[in-house]
Amino acid sequence: MTENDAISILVIEDNQGDFLLIKDYIEEQLADAKIFHAKKYEDAAIILNDTSLPLDVILLDLTLPDHTGELLIKDVVDKRPQTPVIVLTGFADLDFSIRSLKLKISDYLLKDDINAASLYKSIKFNIERKRTNLLLEESEKRYSNLFQLSPQPMWIFDVVNFSFLQVNKAAIDHYQFTEAEFLNMKLIDIFADVHDDKDVLVKANEISSRDKIYKGRFRHRKKNQEIIEVDIYSSLITINETTYESVIAIDVTEKIKLEHKITKAIITTQEDERYEIGTELHDNVCQILASSQLSLEMLRDNLPPESVQWFNKSKQFINLALEEIRNISHRLAPSFFDETTIEDTFQELLDNFNTEKKYNIHLDIDFGKVKKKLSSEIQLNLYRILQEQMRNIVKYAHASQINVSLSIESNKIVFLIEDDGVGFDYQLAKRGIGLANIRRRAELFSGSMEIFSKVNEGCKLAVEIPI
């Protein structure tokens, strides 16, 4: 679906103000959305019972004048079991949200946390997820019919040697291999990252079971060498007393691009705001403080001796405030916005983290190659990655040596940040917000982030971004 697709949305909400806000959020992202409104369950039931009226998604407030809570959810879901229901509530009740998810709602959003982008993502994602789940349910009921008729690529492969046993027409059309070519291939032949994904695939088969559906995301390569991102759903099946794996592959390349586009827009807005605040601090607030210093200096000769120490303290505090504001403004608005080189900008950032000279820092940038390859957008994200990782090093690493390098290798930007600190168990720390932010910034440019660290063996962060 695209932003211009006509989506039918039923909003069940008794508060007119909340409804108008939700309506504005929807229309901001989905210009052609068709919105139905019901203030009471009685009115909603009339719409839900009209089977001639297609609904793509239902937004449900949990507190209505004539119906509330779990019974309300159950009645709405029962009337439209194939339509995703997104609950909107003003109460942050974790236990209730978990129970409501078990009642087959698609999502649970707090009204205070909703904005246009998050609501849009939830609507789009849950519509697609509901469609996928329906496809999976139908495939379990009538697999033999749906295998060839499925609009999504499907195949069966041997769990021992990963060779293809069967492929459907959608797989042939989407991947552009003939059926004969597929049957002479192994599953890893369509992987874009053979080494990494092969290891993941082996693990996937190890954890698969007869009563469990495996889900994973992989990068595949079509016959024309186009790289696509796919969500894989698989489960074990038995044919002639032999165990195979049945797979459905959903191409999410465009969905990911759309999510990245939205995320980039959000980050760009945040960076613009940071730059504006940083510039205002530097050009306005600092000037006010500097003027205050001059005005204060004019009082010196008229001060009685007992007031001189307070005069000096006041000047000292103003100087500290000026220095701190300058540091904050430089962090908020990196200097390469003013056409300073990335090398100078990185060095300034590293110097700011090393004011007490605790670390021996080495910066190595292949400036001749890097200068022509980096857009200002990539430079800014690399700067934020370095900023985030330096915070981690200063806070946790207890390091003495820090090495930072930026180069171009094999048509990729390679950004390395290493320290000789105490290290950590990456499996325990990989869900941290800081590392998640770094990974997200790399993935915005189709890049990757890897951490190499063990306890007492330092840490190496490697970011690669294809050019």
Report on this model:
The protein is an alpha/beta fold and 467 residues long. The chain folds into 4 domains: 133 residues, Response regulator (Rossmann fold), CATH 3.40.50.2300; 109 residues, Beta-Lactamase (2-Layer Sandwich), CATH 3.30.450.20; 80 residues; 129 residues, 2-Layer Sandwich (Heat Shock Protein 90), CATH 3.30.565. Helix content is 49%, strand content 22%. The strands form 4 sheets. Strands 2-1-3-6-7 form a 5-stranded parallel sheet, sandwiched between helices. A 5-stranded antiparallel sheet has the order 9-8-12-11-10, sandwiched between helices. Strands 13-14-15-17-16 form a 5-stranded mixed sheet. It starts with 7 loop residues before the first strand and ends with a strand. About 1% of the residues have low confidence.
Beta-strand content estimate: 15-25%
The portion of residues assigned to helices is: 40-55%
In the CATH hierarchy, what is the superfamily of the largest domain? Response regulator
Which parts are unreliable, with pLDDT below 50 for 5 consecutive residues or more? Answer: 206-210
Mean pLDDT: 82
CATH class membership of the largest domain? Alpha Beta
* Structural class by secondary-structure content: alpha/beta
Number of domains: 4
What is the radius of gyration computed over CA atoms, rounded to a whole number of angstroms? 29 Å
Give the termini separation: 29 Å
Biggest sheet: strands side by side, in what order?
2-1-3-6-7
Largest sheet: 5 strands, parallel
The general outline is globular
Identify the CATH architecture of the largest domain.
3-Layer(aba) Sandwich
Counted by DSSP, the helix tally is 16
And the CATH topology of the largest domain? Rossmann fold
Note the quaternary state here. Answer: single chain
Number of strand segments:
17
